[in-house]
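Obj.: predict assembly geometry.
Materials: sequence records (below).
Method: joint structure prediction, all chains together.
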Amino acid sequence: KNQVEQSPQSLIILEGKNCTLQCNYTVSPFSNLRWYKQDTGRGPVSLTIMTFSENTKSNGRYTATLDADTKQSSLHITASQLSDSASYICVVSPAYSSASKIIFGSGTRLSIRP
Amino acid sequence: SAVISQKPSRDICQRGTSLTIQCQVDSQVTMMFWYRQQPGQSLTLIATANQGSEATYESGFVIDKFPISRPNLTFSTLTVSNMSPEDSSIYLCSVERTSGMGTDTQYFGPGTRLTVL
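Observations (raw structure tokens):
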């Protein structure tokens, strides 16, 4: 069964610190892996998109990595800001499938404390 | 990217009533998707709305409870019928677009936060 698991479930760090969120998946083959940021009560916003052949993708202070051999991805946040407090969702698209078949992780809830 | 708007942004409703949520996209798309996100949970696909044909519902969701309209290529509505407190969720509209790098990605509306008393 195709699954996407994220860890930790929640994380609290101090403002200015770095953190890394993990995503393990069993989807194979897959087309792309995406990280989204979702503020409370809002829709998810895309941070990074990586195809199966890419290893890293950056978007400002957000850097995503992908290891297709171990089926792991991580999202690294540098110099965290209070506005980074949100849920971060890992999403995997199976290859040769429609958009209705994408698989969502349960998310990591990140809280940044001043 | 895609600009997606939803109405209403939030509502508080009485059980047994129905609420229709509107979704407007800034350009034409073939498929629009409706998701539900229950408190503390991830997103669950309700149905795919195709213009000119019946919506395709996922397991556990039925047309009588969540009727969908798709009158044109930029607009869709989702109705939550005969609501109960268990329907309290965020409802999200979504479309898929090909990014500048040639990769398909999914864009989400701001969501409708529904509370059923």
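Conclusions so far: The first strand of chain A starts at residue 4 and ends at 7.
To do: check interface contacts against the pulldown list.
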